[in-house]
Design a protein that fits this description.
Blueprint: H1 17-22, E1 39-42, E2 52-55, E3 71-73, H2 74-127
Antiparallel strand pairs: 1-2, 2-3
Length: about 130
């Protein structure tokens, strides 16, 4: 995961989306650093022959070491993307749980007020008030 100098806003362990945004090739890339859309190609040479790779269409053989254009293996990109996706349900679940706790407290308060009103109506019926 790319290194981030920012600190999370809570003490709770969480995935920081700022880290992913700080590194353009984190997850499945859409564009190269130069702004061109990347292409998914099949590697035709080397020990990873047959593996899929995201590459900038402007990338030339002499640019491989310069890091001026994006090149990223498909399996690495998908693994990183899944890390982002796996965090989202946890985050949604946590926010949903907090919302439910708030709603439950509100419902309990309403029920308590209704019980008080029922007792008042019972007294009025008994005493004919």
């Amino acid at each position: 995961m790319p290194y981030s100098y920012s600190q999370p806003s809570t003490s709770e362990a969480s995935w920081n989306s700022g880290e992913a945004n700080a590194d353009e090739n984190w997850g499945v890339p859409e564009k190269c650093f130069c702004g061109k859309p990347v292409k998914l190609e099949v590697c035709k040479t080397g020990y990873r022959q047959g593996d899929r790779v995201y590459k900038c269409p402007m990338l030339k053989a002499e640019d491989y070491e310069s890091r001026n254009h994006l090149i990223q293996w498909w399996d690495q990109a998908v693994t990183e993307e899944l890390e982002k996706v796996n965090y989202k349900p946890y985050s949604a679940l946590r926010h949903g749980q907090l919302a439910c706790n708030h709603a439950l407290a509100s419902i309990r308060e309403t029920v308590h007020l209704m019980q008080d009103e029922i007792e008042i109506f019972k007294e009025r019926m008994v005493y004919g008030i």
